[in-house]
Structure formats: structure tokens, C-alpha cells
């Protein structure tokens, strides 16, 4: 047993405290000092670990993306595979989105909004979310493929469009949920809406 | 002819400069001094007109909302009324969204994202966007009503759900466009997608 906290573990705890700060006070409210206080560590600990505010923000983004990846991996494994038919239960995607309405996933979702809004003026930030963003899109494509009417020919361009529309809707929904919207009440209801969107788009071809 | 700039006109010019700053540098990058420089006015002009940073942010939000209202009014007038049938041309909503991909509407859209992200911790900010938000929702309801299959009985709860889904999709799309996404190429294409979403949702009832 070590007496001193593991340095990597300490950095993760600082990042987690920073995620909560970001969610509550926004990017304007983030500082080394506030993270020290929120994490209950001696003054200077955060700036010792992350020399600049940019370094802190990048580490926080990496932490959010890593936690996102964990959840995305679970959601992907939980989704029925394409070909299982659309009656095989609630999608992992719908469960993932509904989970973002409370607790730590809601806090992380609010923090992610703050970080993503910065990402078009910070390539390192944009890069931090690249991998999880790709997995997130792949999860939408899986849902779209699973929802194709059986026997229909599948044209890649149509799948692309449907995945884009679905992902755009889900992006809007996650933002709305992060702002406190709770219009959609269950993963089943969300799956029904996603299914209707895809079937509406499929039908017009 | 006045020699001195009209005080109200001067404040609007400062707000417009602040909108561009917000879009480029985010809420973190906004300060009285930077607005003075961006507007090309003597140092101190912005802090004379808006004593606190909060007062400046609230004035900028009011300016964004006023410009939004102008565009929303045009978009509402341009949309065919319910009952005109769905072949009567491109919706004002689709045109409004596509216009947000370039020029001053894109800058305003980026600034609005920054402000809206603050609005859940600032009631005055939230209030600034209340009226335009209501008009924006009404515009979605008009599109949904216009797209109902003819002869179908219209249940208010279904209209509400369809308007919610459409607005959530459009919210995600405006955010994507503000971040540089240009997947959707025309108002006609966007109208086709909105029509498919509504018909998919209508069909499952």
C-alpha cells in the first residue's frame, strides 16, 4: 500500500473535479485554484499537475472522451446486431442518451458542451473528441442499418444520409437534455422516434 | 444632422462588435476593452455604455434576439400557410436555417451558442431568448401542421411530439452548421428531410 496518492490517479481526480466545475460554471469559471478547492487538495496541486489553463482543459477533454468511450463501448455491445430485426429490444444508443439526463453522465454532458464549443478554435481539443466521435457515429449507423425495412436494397448514400439525420437529431437532443429538457421519458419512446425518423427517410426513396 | 453618434445607435454598434468577438473567441474572450478595439471606438466607450460584463452580455443577447426576431418574422411570412398543401415551395424555416451557414447569420449563430450555453445559469439571459424561442417553436409547428397527411385527424399530442422532434433536429443542425458542417446543401434538401421526419412520425400512429 502506498501512502502517497498515485500521480496518475491524482490527475484523474483533478480532472473529475474540473468536469463538475465546467458543468456548473462554464469555461469562464475554470481555474487552477477553483479545481484545487473543488478537489479538496492543497493550493497549487492543479497548477503543479497542469502547468497552463490550456493543459488543464486538454486533460479534462481527454478524461471526458475516455469516459465517453467506456459508455460507447457498453452501448455498442448492448445493441442488437444488424439483422436481428427491429423488435429485439431497446437500443444501446437510446439507453446511452437517456442515461445522460441524470447524475454523472449529465454533469459530463454539460462539461462536454462547454469543451466542444471551444473545439473549433483549438485543434488539440477537437482531436481529443475525434475517436469517441467516430464511435458515436458508428453507433448511429448500426441503429440505421438495423432499422432498414427488410428486403429493401441498401444504398450507402441513403444510409449516410439517415445516419447524419439521426446523429443531428441526437446531438440536438443531448444538448436539450443537458439544458434540463425531459420531454422524452424513456429509452423505448426514443427508440420509437428514431425508428420513425429512419422509416420516414427510407420511404421517400 | 447630428455630429455626435446617437447613443442608442452607438450601443447597437458595440453589441454588433461584441457578437463578432463572441463568435470568434467565445465567452472567455469577451471584455469591454476588446469590444472598444473591435468597434474602433475610444477606450472606455464600452464600459461607459455597459458598466459590467454582465450588462454587456445581456445587451448582446438582446441584440442577437432582436435580429433573430427580424429573421423569424420574415421566415414566418415566407412560409406557406397550413392548408396550402406541401407542394407550395420551400419553407421559410428551411431558408432560415440554410442562411445561417454563411455571413452575419453564421457569426450570430456562433455567438448565440455561446450565450445559450450560459443561459441555464443566468435567468436574464434565458429571458432574452424567450420570445424568439417561442416564435421559433411556432415556426416548427406551422411546418408540422402543413406536412400532415391530408384527411388525417390531427391530435394535438402528436403535433406536439412532431414539433418537438423537428425542433430538436433543427437545433442539432444549427449547432452543426455553426461548427462548420455543410452536409445539407440546399433548403429543398432540408425540406425533404423535414417532410420525411414528419411523415415517419405520422405513419406510426
Automatic annotation (TrEMBL), chains A, B:
Keywords: DNA-binding. Residues 31-50 bind DNA. Residues 8-68 form the HTH tetR-type domain. GO terms for molecular function: DNA binding. This is TetR family transcriptional regulator. The lineage of its organism: Bacteria, Bacillati, Actinomycetota, Actinomycetes, Mycobacteriales.
Amino acid at each position: 500500500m502506498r501512502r502517497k496518492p498515485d500521480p496518475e490517479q491524482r490527475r484523474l481526480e483533478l480532472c473529475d473535479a474540473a468536469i463538475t466545475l465546467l458543468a456548473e460554471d462554464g469555461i469562464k469559471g475554470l481555474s487552477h485554484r477553483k479545481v484545487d478547492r473543488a478537489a479538496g487538495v492543497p493550493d497549487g496541486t492543479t497548477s503543479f499537475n497542469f502547468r497552463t489553463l490550456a493543459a488543464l482543459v486538454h486533460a479534462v477533454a481527454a478524461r471526458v472522451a475516455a469516459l465517453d468511450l467506456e459508455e460507447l463501448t457498453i452501448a455498442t455491445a448492448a445493441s442488437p446486431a444488424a439483422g436481428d430485426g427491429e423488435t429485439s429490444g431497446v437500443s444501446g444508443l437510446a439507453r446511452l442518451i437517456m442515461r445522460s439526463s441524470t447524475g454523472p453522465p449529465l454533469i459530463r454532458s454539460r462539461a462536454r458542451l462547454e469543451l466542444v464549443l471551444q473545439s473549433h478554435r483549438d485543434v488539440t481539443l477537437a482531436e481529443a473528441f475525434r475517436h469517441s466521435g467516430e464511435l458515436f457515429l458508428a453507433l448511429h449507423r448500426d441503429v440505421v442499418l438495423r432499422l432498414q425495412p427488410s428486403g429493401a436494397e441498401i444504398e450507402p448514400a441513403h444510409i449516410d444520409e439517415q445516419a447524419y439525420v439521426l446523429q443531428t437529431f441526437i446531438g440536438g437532443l443531448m444538448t436539450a437534455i443537458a439544458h434540463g429538457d425531459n420531454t422524452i421519458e424513456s429509452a423505448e419512446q426514443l427508440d420509437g422516434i428514431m425508428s420513425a425518423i429512419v422509416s420516414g427517410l427510407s420511404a421517400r426513396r
